[in-house]
């Protein structure tokens, strides 16, 4: 007599081999799929993009709000080390360590605020968002409404206010002024856009082209193909 347990044993064995086969196939497919996903750029491959500017300069504000914002929408930020440098046209009086700004005291205040944004939130996605909001208001002459930006972005006000009220934003200004003074060649206007230590001068609105041309990695954003093809045709 055939044992009633035999068919169950056979079924279990078949199920085991079916599971192992499908699991192996899934694992193989996963490895293939993962191999097809481009690796993120290595830090040393990224292009250094530095923007030297003044906070109440209209051309600077328009560039930051209209042009620079695109790198967060077209994935260019993935291949870029973005550095924002306010106080670019300000003057440091070394006798009393006071700073005068090209467009007056209001600009010094906004430069201080933006320095605090850079200092309190090193993450480029956060400090850029806040500076974008400040500059958006500056375009319409509403820069004194800067506190509204914190509600819009859901950022805590306290650490930022501590930085500003302590004068740390102005102290940071000295660092940015000294950094700007080391530019070679020296900047002659703002915004002064530098790609891998090379200024692109009056062609700053086309910075995407220069970034893409400088990038030597393999994970090339689609925006680079569009930009390079458009200009090099």
UniProtKB/TrEMBL annotation:
<protein>
    <submittedName>
        <fullName>Gamma-interferon-responsive lysosomal thiol protein-like isoform X1</fullName>
    </submittedName>
</protein>
<keyword id="KW-0325">Glycoprotein</keyword>
<keyword id="KW-0732">Signal</keyword>
<dbReference type="Pfam" id="PF03227">
    <property type="entry name" value="GILT"/>
</dbReference>
<dbReference type="GO" id="GO:0016671">
    <property type="term" value="F:oxidoreductase activity, acting on a sulfur group of donors, disulfide as acceptor"/>
</dbReference>
<feature type="signal peptide">
    <location>
        <begin position="1"/>
        <end position="23"/>
    </location>
</feature>
<dbReference type="InterPro" id="IPR004911">
    <property type="entry name" value="Interferon-induced_GILT"/>
</dbReference>
<comment type="similarity">
    <text>Belongs to the GILT family.</text>
</comment>
């Amino acid at each position: 007599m055939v044992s009633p347990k035999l068919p169950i044993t056979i079924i279990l064995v078949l199920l085991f081999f079916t599971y192992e086969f499908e699991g192996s196939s899934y694992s193989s497919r996963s490895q293939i799929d993962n191999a097809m996903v481009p690796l993120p750029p290595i830090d040393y491959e990224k292009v250094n993009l530095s923007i030297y500017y003044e906070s109440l300069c209209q051309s600077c504000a328009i560039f930051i709000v209209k042009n620079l914002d695109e790198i967060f929408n077209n994935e260019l930020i993935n291949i870029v080390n973005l550095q924002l440098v306010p106080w670019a046209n300000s003057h440091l009086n070394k006798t009393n360590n006071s700073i005068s700004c090209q467009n007056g005291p209001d600009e010094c205040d906004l430069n201080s605020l933006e320095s605090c944004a850079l200092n309190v939130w090193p993450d480029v996605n956060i400090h850029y968002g806040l500076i974008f909001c400040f500059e958006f208001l500056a375009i319409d002459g509403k820069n004194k409404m800067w506190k509204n930006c914190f509600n819009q972005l859901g950022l805590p006000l306290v650490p930022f206010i501590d930085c500003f009220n302590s004068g740390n934003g102005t102290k940071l200004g000295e660092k940015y002024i000294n950094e700007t003074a080391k530019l070679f060649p020296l900047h002659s206007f703002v915004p002064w856009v530098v790609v891998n230590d090379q200024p692109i001068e009056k062609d700053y609105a086309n910075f995407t082209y220069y970034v893409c041309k400088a990038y030597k990695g393999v994970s090339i954003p689609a925006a680079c193909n569009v930009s390079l093809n458009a200009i090099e045709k």
